[in-house]
Amino acid sequence: MTQRVLVTGGGRGVGAAIVRALALAGFNVLFTVRTAEAEAEALIASIKTDKPDAAVEARLLDLADKAAVEAFAATLAEEPAYYGFIHNAGMSYDTLAALVDQGKAEELMQVNYWSFVKLVGALVRPMTRARAGRIVAIGSIAADVANAGNAIYAASKAALAGYCRTLAIESARRGVTVNVVAPGFVDTAMLAPYAAYRANVEKQIPAGRFAGPEDVAALVSFLLSPGAAYITGTTLPVDGGLTAALAIQR
């Protein structure tokens, strides 16, 4: 039986790369989108061109809508068990820490953190009963390395990592792994506002370039593979060595 996988925010960028990699690897992939309907259709068509028998489907879901997330979670709980869950969807909110608007911050936490908690609650129990499951949250190096104006985004990713560590030790004996993949700068539309600073930023990354979405997707694919069965409760950076480097440049 083909293993089923759910990916949130799979319509574009890193999410689309993850959907493609997993579908081409033979998984039955369901992914959610909020507004990227056209992109989702194009992605599915492209995957089908490369793999005509690929099983891939998109569903509309606004993770900022608590009621919609709860309804979706209830639906998932009634479906056959999923083998994998990748929480990629996320939103950003840039402002100085002292100027945070609570309403905007709560919306970001709902998308980046609370929606994951709700969905994983519906998915992990069937995984533990099946004694097989892989959960991956897309975090960020911002959870561990401060960047001015990034307080709430960083806090949401830190909360995600903390939750995943605990879930990992609670579910490990039941054959479920839980890990965080923490990208650095990835070449997607989310970084468009930083285009003017790109050359300067790339000079400070030991690898000398931004990550491509496929760099992140490759690690996610590995974490869903048999070879990653003993990796759980950890955060794996995909940052070209950025967090390993001393911040002060001589």
From TrEMBL:
Keywords: Oxidoreductase. InterPro entries: KR_dom, NAD(P)-bd_dom_sf, Sc_DH/Rdtase_CS, SDR, SDR_fam. Residues 3-189 form the Ketoreductase domain. Coiled coil: none annotated. It holds the Pfam family adh_short_C2. Its EC number is 1.1.1.100. It comes from Starkeya nomas. One of its GO terms (molecular function) is 3-oxoacyl-[acyl-carrier-protein] reductase (NADPH) activity. This is 3-oxoacyl-[acyl-carrier-protein] reductase FabG.
